[in-house]
Amino acid sequence: MVLGSLRRKSAKLGRMALQVFHGPFDALEQAFAARVAERKPVPGAAPVLVVAPSRALADRLERLLTVEKGLSLLDVHFHTFRTLADAIIEDADASDPG
Length: 98
Fold this sequence. Notes:
Helix content is about 45%, strand content about 30%. With about 100 residues, the protein is α+β, with helices and mostly antiparallel strands. The strands form two sheets. Strands 1-2-3 form a three-stranded antiparallel beta sheet. It has a two-stranded parallel ribbon with strand order 4-5. A hairpin with a 2-residue loop joins strand 1 (about 1-5) and strand 2 (about 5-15). The chain is globular, with a radius of gyration of 15 Å.
């Protein structure tokens, strides 16, 4: 699917739908901000999880949303690949009764 100058590919991973967008950086930032803005926090709903390959990029995206777009980050969680892996392991250890 083409969204302006962006391209999107979708895949299904178990119960989760994965969407990957690629294109010019400015267009990606605008599309990212629009997608996050669409997902208003709803009590009991899963949070929005943003995974970036580096802390610097995660910080950039967080700044884009808050400072440049004026969005609230209530229930928006930013991770790097590493911190996401750590959170998954921690969650698995917490739910393991043994």
